[in-house]
């Protein structure tokens, strides 16, 4: 076993615009779903595929365990905006799996397999440069030392969280939640992106800042808020969440939740913002 909860990008300690393994990649061997072999975390993704002469086709193969049957708009390969990934490598060595999305050129940018399940990042904090909050204030992260608020969630870049670090209790803390294609463009299975400028770990993580089941815009496209939060196509406004004790619970989108149009402005350290859903997304209620 890993001995800790896998974190996105935990092997990538430098750089701000980095493609790295997602948390889901680390659990694939335990699901007997590691189609590319055991994803070796000692490698950066592009080095792993080159070293093992593995085709990038594997990144586009669907895995049923990551796909919710209720996601009526979902495709096997996630073609949503801000959902492609970059895998660095020599194009003749790393072959492209099919045509590139419109507007892209070059051999390293590609869409990959869809996941309807994203990890719990936190419930507060926002960075227009880097999106979700990162490491503990005493550690550096993808935003640099000057922008690293503390984190009350389960996953962040390099988190390496242990069960002992969830004082609220495993049965009271959300680990993973749903995200639908229609409301939030779903997420990705294998890789995540840590960037100082653009969409980053929303590819594999979610924030409770966003409203539950955020609707698409007037054109039917997922909004920035929807792409960052939790949603599903289950009837009755229900979203399924996996808690840290392994139980799966349904939560109504009407749960007490500090939902506001100014969702990105929700500040840390203000207890009036910590409602029922926020507490479920925090492993240490009332502590930042």
In words, what does this structure look like?
With 288 residues, the chain is mostly beta strands. It has one domain. Helix content is 9%, strand content 16%. The strands form 4 sheets. Strands 10-6-7-11-12 form a 5-stranded mixed β-sheet, with no helix packed on it. The chain has a 3-stranded antiparallel β-sheet with strand order 2-5-8, with no helix packed on it. The longest helix has 7 residues. It is globular, with a radius of gyration of 18 Å. The chain starts with 17 loop residues before the first strand and ends in an 8-residue tail after the last helix.
How is this structure best summarized?
With 288 residues, this protein is mostly beta strands. The protein has helices at residues 23-27, 45-51, 181-184, 224-228, 276-280, and strands at 18-21, 77-78, 85-86, 109-110, 112-115, 117-122, 174-178, 187-188, 191-194, 205-207, 238-243, 248-252. The two termini are 29 Å apart.
Largest sheet: 5 strands, mixed
* SS elements, strand count: 12
Helix content: under 10%
Quote the beta fraction. Answer: 15-25%
Question: What overall geometry do the principal axes of the alpha carbons give?
Answer: globular
**Could you say how many structural domains there are in total?**
1
Task: Spell the H/E element sequence.
Answer: EHHEEEEEEHEEEHEEH
Give the strand order, joined by hyphens, for the main sheet: 10-6-7-11-12
Mean pLDDT equals 76
Structural class: mainly beta
* N- to C-terminal distance: 29 Å
- Give the low-confidence spans: 90-96, 100-107, 135-149
The number of distinct helices, counting runs of at least 4 residues, comes to: 5
Radius of gyration: 18 Å
